[in-house]
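Proteins fold reproducibly. Look at a sample protein:
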Amino acid sequence: MPYKAIIQRDGEWWIGWVEEIPGVNSQGSTREELIESLRSALREAIEMNRADAIAASQAGYEEATLHL
């Protein structure tokens, strides 16, 4: 699934936010560094959210794929 990031140059830094996932933001000294940092932050957030959802469901859960 593709995600969109809002990125901008801020002085000597590049900063950005992933639109679809609150709290996923980062900065980098280059545009490329920022993009890679956002990818890493996004992966971590998705893994953490998945682990939290599984822990909250306790036992006997099933997974369903959702398409928008």
Q: What stands out?
A: The first strand starts at residue 5 and ends at 10. The chain has a mean pLDDT of 95. Residues 3 and 20 are 7 Å apart (CA to CA).
